[in-house]
Design goal:
mainly alpha; 4 helices; about 50% helix
Amino acid sequence: MLVCLCRGVSDRVVREVIARGAGTLREVGRACGAGIDCGSCRDLIRTMIASCPPRGCEPPAAASSESARADGA
């Protein structure tokens, strides 16, 4: 799903940036460009930051492989 239409940034990219340590809207914007243009995605980015504190979650790819292993795949 696209989070930032202006920059074409997906939710996956934003989650990866947050997982690598971005803890503010400004840090996310610096890392991937999301939220620095029109601002319509800023509330969603803030929600994503709040739901996954910096260094408190795994990037999406790692999380997917973990759930696959837990399912016996």
